[in-house]
Structure formats: structure tokens, C-alpha cells
Amino acid sequence: MDQSSIDALAAAPVAPRGLFIGGQWVTASNGAVLPVTSPIDGQPLTTIADASAADVDAAVASARRAFHRGLWSRAAPAERKKVMHRIADAIEREALSLAVLGVRDNGTEISMAIKAEPGSAAGTFRYYAEALDKIPGEIAPTAESVLGLVHREPVGVVGAIVPWNFPLMIGAWKIAPALAAGNSVVLKPSEVASLSLLRLAEICTECGLPEGVLNVVTGLGAVSGEALGLHPDVDVLVFTGSGGVGRRLLEYSARSNLKRVYLELGGKSPNVVFADAPDLKQAAKVSAAGIFRNSGQVCVAGSRLLVQRAVAEEFTELLAAEARAMKVGNPLRLDTQAGAISSEMQLARVAGMVAQAADEGASLVTGGARILPETGGSYFAPTIFAGVAPEMTIAREEVFGPVLGVLPFDTEEDAIRIANGTDYGLAAAVWTGNLGRAHRMVRAIDAGVVHVNTYGGADNTVPLGGHRQSGNGHDKSLHAMDKYVNLKTAWIQL
Questions:
Q1: Choosing from 299, 313, 322, 397, which is the catalytic residue?
Q2: Any idea where the domains of the chain sit in the sequence?
Q3: Does the pTM exceed 0.90?
Q4: CA–CA separation, 284 and 165 (whole Å)
Q5: What is the 3-class SS of 23-74, one letter each residue?
Q6: Which of 339, 340, 358, 431 is most solvent-facing, going by the fewest CB within 10 Å?
């Protein structure tokens, strides 16, 4: 990957995109389109189709026909494996163009995007390609006169709604295990970042995925997302995004066909630093990346820093130095460390949360304002507040931006109380040189992922899922396959 290759790809025009239904590009039934504005410079990039409820009906019908046709759902596992490996190969071949396309769409810095988007997506397809023929059914321990079998069958049609921060990575987390199990999929990307997933659907068909097995409908969540959630012929719905939308999807399930709904929602993840951390400088460096990379637009971002009072001042200054040194700017430059906020709307939300933190009495250490307005893009300085109390809004609500609140604590018990003092339970981290303390904290913190002496980096071998209002169900690992299968018992009298 070199800068000249990135620049060449970034200069290419992006053709308007329609809906991908039944292996074909189609326009929205009412002809509606949405403009795509790049957060890099605020300039128009292209347009995408704005699907109606009728278009969602067409996509679901296409998925159902493909499922019943059986070219994929009843294909031998070895055949599905071959296609999924071809998809992974194709993603790897197009990794740079996919990454650049995504960066132009949502503003993630290219140095992160190349690994987190096509790199992760290819690995996810490969992981589930290898897993799909290694998860057997069961023979139950019954009396000699009975044979009890447990079959694992695809559920049918999976609806998947994914966000704008890492569309290709999170899309693959939903699509790959659903396809591996033999299902058909209707994917609804965020209207803020759809382009890389539209290309992925095209790649899948080019690699031999039968027409109609993967369909993509773009458009406003309030229309096409709602239509997918309410659709009576969707068997399972998976979603990554906000708690408010997650609640509505549960309501839609109750109002329609009681489809299973799996939600990966927000986080307010505590990053807990004890005075006995092995290397405070390294902890500060990693912690800065854990909140400021992708401009804080990461569901597991360590947005609450809990630091033991004895080292609170020292560690806060180390972290502030890291924040001030970060290069924020054009995400298509290889030396950029934090890119753009995804949209002007999200930038306004971040600025509003920062203003509220100041009004509630938090002390601004660094950052706190929009930067680089001359570019026309959406950029915000890495921001740190000290003197944050657990009851402040900035300590309780997800900002989804480059904003960190520092909360001091005295004892291990204090740290546990503060760490668990929100409605969320997605991720956390603990920095300590005490092995016993590390294990105690892992058990005590109510979160789906607890890092020790690091932040981030967990791969497909382990699950990602939240506790409490951070959701249910799991992405990644073999556990993710459970969402996409039905168990069927055969009880056979011999």
C-alpha cells in the first residue's frame, strides 16, 4: 500500500448505485435516490437508491425464492466452503480499492480501514468457510430402543442492519455466518456508508453465490429498516447500532411474526488503570488509540478512563500528550492517525455532548472543538475531560466521538462500582501487574469483553457481545452460528 495508489483510487469517480436484488442492479421502485456526501471534504461523492417498503418486499421475496430453490441452502457444505473462500480471495485482491471506497464514504483513516474493513472481512469469510463443515449435529444419549438426533438447519431469511462506522467488517460478521449456515440474507446498510457493502454483494455473486442469496437494500432506516424489521417473511433479524433503534426492532418483531432479534448496541466502556500497571506510558499510548482511532466512532471504544488516584494526574498528562500528538486530518493520507467524523449530524452531536460536559462541571484538559473547517470536512480534536463524576452525562451516555472522561478511584472496590455504574456492558479493560487482581476484575466487570493490559485486537476466535443494554447474542466465533440455525429433534423408535 503506497500513497500514490491511494491517491489514484481516491480520484476516480464513483458511479451511482442502485439496489442489489436477485443478483441484479435495480433502481428504487419510486426512483428515489439519496446523495452521498464525503466527510473528508463535505463534497458530493455519488448517489445511492432510497428503497421503499415495496423494494424491501422484493428483496425478501428474492431471498425466500433462493432459499427454497436450494442451490445454496441445500448445497453440500464443501460447495459452500469453496464459494466462501473465493469471496475471501476476491476481497483480498480488491482490499485497497474497497478500503479507499469505504474511507471516502465514512472517513475512517486508511491506515486503520485497510485492516479493519477488507482485512477483517476476508478473514471472517475464511473463518466461517472453514467452520461450516465442522459443527456437527448431535446423537442424544437415549435408551437402546430409541435414536435421538439433533439437526442444525438454516433458519431461512436473515435480515441484517449494519452501521456506518465499520460497514464491511460488521457486515461480514453478519453475512458470513448466516451464509455458512445455508441462509439467504437481506442486508440494509446505513445510508451514511453503503458503498463498500454494495460492492461486496457484487463480489459474492461474481464468486458463485447464487442469485438472490444476498440482497442489499439501501436507504433511510425509518423506511427500509422499519420495513425489514416488520416483514413477516424475515425469520431472524440481526442489528448493530443504537439502543433506541434496537428497542424499535424488538417492537417490530412483536408486531409482526415474532422473528428472533439479536442486537449489538452501544457501550460506555471503562478503561481501568491501576497504579501497579506494568508500563504507564504504554498504557497511555494504547488507551489513546482505544478512544481516538476512527475519531472515537467504535462501539467498544474505551470512553471512560478510570484511573487510580495515586497516578491519576501523571496518567492523564501522559494521555493528553498522546492526544495532542495525534495527527487528525485527511483519512486518505497514510500518516493520518484519526480521520473524519462520519457526518455533519454526528459532528453536531459530539459538539453538543462536549458542551454539556463543560456545563456540568467537567474540566477540559485538551481538545474540545471542531478543527480543520477550511477543508469542508467533519473533524474534531481528540478531547479529554478531567474531574468527571459518575453521574455526569459524559460518564453515562455514549458520545460515539473522540471524547474521553477521566474518573479517579481509590480502591479495587471503587473501580468495580464505577465501572459497572452505567446501563451498558459491552467492553472494558484493566491495566495491572497483579495477576490475581486481573482475574478478579475480569469476573467483576459486567461486560462482554474485558481486555487485560491491552485494548482491542480480539479476533474471530472469540465472541463479541454485550450485557445489559449493550444487547444480546454474539458476533464472531463459533457462537455466532447459533443465531442462524434452528435445532430440530428427531426421536426415532427403533
A1: 299
A2: 3-265, 270-459
A3: yes
A4: 24
A5: CEEECCCCCCEEEEECCCCCCEEEEEECCCHHHHHHHHHHHHHHHHHCCCCC
A6: 358
Strand partners of residue 236: 158, 260
The three-point CA angle 480-110-404 to 5° equals 75
299 is catalytic: yes
CATH classification (class only), 270-459:
alpha beta
Using CA atoms in the order 441, 443, 448, 449, what is the torsion angle rounded to 10 degrees?
Answer: 50
Write the DSSP assignment of 313-345 as a string of letters. Answer: HHHHHHHHHHHHH--BS-TTSTT-SB---S-HH
Confidence class of residue 127 from pLDDT cuts 50, 70 and 90?
A: very high
Q: Is 412 a catalytic residue?
A: no
C-alpha cell at 238: 440481526
Distance CA 408, CA 308 (A): 6
* Three cell numbers, residue 256: 409482526
Task: Point out the catalytic residue in the list 117, 264, 322, 398.
Answer: 264
Quick: pLDDT tens for 70-110: 999 999 999 999 999 999 999 999 999 999 999 999 999 99
Q: Which CATH superfamily is domain 3-265 in?
A: Aldehyde Dehydrogenase; Chain A, domain 1 (3.40.605.10)
CA gyration radius for the chain? 23
**Grid coordinates representing 50?**
432510497
User: Tell me, what's the pLDDT at 298?
Assistant: 95
